[in-house]
Every structure is written in structure tokens, then in C-alpha cells.
Amino acid sequence: MASITNPHPRRRKGRASTTAGRRTLPPGRRFLVWLLLIAYSAMLLYWMFLGFGRTVQLDGPLRYNLEPLRTVRLFFDMNNGLSYASRLVNLLGNVAVFAPVGFLLPLAVSRYYSWFRLTVMSACCIMVLELAQMLLHVGSLDIDDLLLNLLGVWAGYALLRLVRG
After folding, report:
1. Against a cut of 0.85, is the pTM above it?
2. What is the pLDDT at residue 18?
3. For the chain, first and last CA: distance in Å?
4. At what angle do helices 27-49 and 115-135 cross, to 10 degrees?
5. Residue with the larger pLDDT of the pair 152 and 90
6. What pLDDT shows up at residue 148?
7. Are 152 and 95 in contact (CB under 8 A)?
8. Quick one: angle between helices 115-135 and 143-164, nearest 10?
9. How far is CA 79 from CA 44, 73, 82, 85, 94, in A?
10. Torsion on CA atoms 148, 151, 152, 157, rounded to nearest 10
11. Which of 93, 103, 106, 143 meets the CB 3.0–4.6 Å disulfide criterion with 113?
């Protein structure tokens, strides 16, 4: 008995396999990216919870800002007495500190090469970190930090897309 084969095998919907192949790294490089991502994450946790002279302040209420762009407007108000260095550290620092996430995470885990998936995962992680800062009394939960951090993730991702295509 002869078997009948389909001359047109089913193809997966979505991008061609050559595009998916470009997104994955050889195992040695992927391992290196994972090491960089873990080391960077450890530094990030240090900065967010211990660095920059952070101290636990249990005597006050939980601090939070849920009004979008409130803090950003504060830093652009030139009459509030803040130094330019303080403004730069808070605005550009919140963007720059998360750019490596947008670059490294899609290289480490290919499913995060999707802009939407990367955004959702990053926003969830940033919210957990912001909540932890507030609940541990080492900082505040600020929606503007989330927005600026996401801007950094997107900048890192844009750089990755420019470099890798």
C-alpha cells in the first residue's frame, strides 16, 4: 500500500524560521548573556534597596505617588531648589538603569524578543520592585519611576533591534 503525503506541509503562522534563528544565540553566548543579566540584576537590586545611602525609615507612613508625571513635573520645576545633578540622576538615571534589561532579556529568553511581551514582563517586575521599596521603607512606589524605567527598557530594546535587526 502506498502512503499519501501532503505536498504542502503545514507551516507555522508567524515569522519565518530564519527570523527566529537570528533571535537565538549559540549556547555559549546565551550562557554569557545570562551571566551578565544575573550580575546586572544583582547590582540593580543593590542600587534599589541598599545603594545611594538608602536607610530604612520605619517611623513614617508608606510613601507612594500614583499620579502620572507628578514627580517628573517636579524635576522640571526650576524653582523647587533641587540641584541639576539631582534632576539628572533622577530622570536620566531611572531611564538608563533599565536599558540593559531591554537589551539583555530578549537575548537570554527569545520569547521576550516581542516588544509586547518584554513590556508586560518588565512592567510587572518593576512594579514588584517598586512595591518592595515602599513596603520595606527604603523608598517609595512612584508611577513615574515605572514609566521612566519602561522608557529605559524600550531604549535598550530599540538598541538591540538596531544591532540585531
Report:
1. no
2. 45
3. 49
4. 30
5. 152
6. 97
7. yes
8. 150
9. 31, 11, 8, 15, 22
10. 160
11. 106
Q: How far from 116 is each of 15, 35, 60, 62, 86, CA to CA, in Å?
A: 16, 24, 38, 31, 32
Q: How far is Cα 122 from Cα 130, in angstroms, rounded to an integer? A: 12
How many contiguous H segments (helices) and E segments (strands) does the chain have? 7, 2
Residue 112 vs residues 24, 50, 68: alpha-carbon distances, Å: 11, 29, 26
80, 134 in Cβ contact below 8 A?
no
Q: Cell 508567524 maps to which residue?
A: 14
| Cα separation values, 124 from 31, 75, 121, 136, Å | 24, 25, 5, 18
- Amino acid at position 80, single letter: N
pLDDT digits (tens, 9 = 90+) for 5-56: 655 555 555 444 444 556 788 999 999 999 999 999 999 999 999 987 888 8
